[in-house]
Design goal:
nine-stranded mixed beta sheet; Rossmann fold; alpha/beta; about 20% helix; about 350 residues; binds S-adenosylmethionine; two-stranded antiparallel sheet; about 20% strand; 13 strands
């Protein structure tokens, strides 16, 4: 087994018990004390196609085969070092994986959860496919409860969220040529029965603010609602309302005192809370992870993370946050449910490279 790659298989311990023991050591910089955790090291080789119906190969227009994978509560872990900084990738449901991390262990979290009813990532236990809006909000907010715990007291969370319309039109959107990851079955927002909040058809749900205000009731301090103006984004196919061109990046903290470096905002000649950055880059390698642009993460880290701090992304996708963090001399932890995305991310992180990581 490679020194950099380990697959951890939980013993009979529960995740909560495991975390209690994990508190002894923090996985960034100091490795998880595997033997103390009751974990067993297994070969890193995994046959993904046996465990997971590849969503990537699914042709648009054909019904997606039912995914066989039942997400395992046991996180699988890879770790390594790039540019002198440590990285870790945990594969599993963020709701389970976060419980294996100790309290107060990361300086900054930059993350983009799955948007409500927008994409189907093809894995069981994925967030974003809930039948009602309150269920979706609860799913995100409960992940953020654990993020609160693992974030250092002076840490900062940047949470990118997008909105969704309730169409209620009662039929599928049909094939979306833009993405074979979009759901072409009947999404919850297309069903006629509503999404649990009593709104009228064609309403913008207001997901970002619903999540943000829920988090405020759970101890988070909302410091800024940054608008990511998605420069030159693909126009939506609508004619009865303005086409959307922005999303939110909420900046949350735990305490009244926290790390914040305003200088990069002063140095740049742009509005401090409206960031005009090119729209999402094309997905890599045929994997439709809905990545955000490097520059978005760079700006978050420049203002919200000490130069050699540690960064977490609990919905890591193709690994944008990890790559940007490592390229700037910070350590990084990524959590991702899809084994396919994890394998891609890890293979790129493990590639021999000199200087800047590119993928
Ligand atoms: C918007 S994408 C993140 C993209 C990422 N920022 C990037 O640049 O590649 C959301 C990710 O959350 C993952 N995901 C969905 N449900 C999850 C869960 N319960 N736990 C962990 N990851 C999950 C999806 O597989 C997807 O990769």
């Amino acid at each position: 087994m490679s020194a950099n790659t380990e697959t951890l298989v939980n013993s009979s311990q529960t995740i909560a018990q495991t975390r209690q023991e994990a508190l002894k050591e923090h996985p960034i910089g100091k490795e998880l004390s595997i033997t103390n955790l009751g974990y067993e090291c297994r070969s890193p080789q995994r046959n993904i196609t046996n465990r997971h119906t590849s969503a990537v190969s699914t042709k648009p227009g054909k019904p997606r085969p039912q995914t066989q994978l039942k997400a395992e509560p046991q996180p699988q872990l890879w770790r390594g070092n790039a540019n002198g900084s440590d990285w870790q990738v945990l594969q599993g449901d963020a709701r389970n994986c976060l419980k294996t991390l100790p309290d107060n262990c990361v300086n900054c979290v930059v993350t983009s959860p799955p948007y409500y009813c927008l994409r189907d990532y093809g894995v069981d236990e994925q967030i974003g496919q809930e039948e009602t809006v309150p269920e979706y909000i609860e799913a995100i907010a409960s992940v953020m409860d654990d993020v609160y715990r693992v974030l250092k007291q002076d840490g900062v969370l940047f949470l990118n969220l997008g909105d969704t319309y309730y169409s209620g039109k009662g039929k599928s959107h049909g094939i979306d040529p833009k993405s074979n990851k979009r759901r072409f079955g009947l999404r919850a927002v297309d069903k006629s029965g509503g999404v649990g909040i009593g709104i009228q058809r064609k309403s913008l749900i207001g997901i970002p603010w619903r999540v943000a205000t829920e988090m405020e009731t759970r101890k988070w301090v909302l410091r800024s609602a940054i608008i990511w103006h998605r420069d030159r984004c693909l126009p939506e196919a609508v004619n009865d309302r303005p086409r959307r061109s922005y999303e939110y990046v909420f900046m949350f903290v735990k305490d009244r005192k926290y790390y914040f470096n305003r200088q990069p905002l002063i140095d740049q000649d742009f509005d401090e809370d409206v960031w005009t950055i090119a729209a999402r880059p094309k997905s890599t390698n045929g994997l439709e992870t809905a990545p955000y642009p490097d520059e978005l993460v760079e700006r978050c880290l420049a203002i919200g993370c000490p130069p050699q701090g540690s960064v977490l992304d609990c919905f890591a996708g193709g690994g944008t946050t990890l790559r940007v963090a490592l390229n700037s001399g910070r350590s990084a932890i990524g959590i991702e449910l899809s084994p396919i995305f994890c394998d891609y991310m890890v293979s790129q992180l493990q590639k021999p490279h000199e200087g800047t990581l590119c993928f």
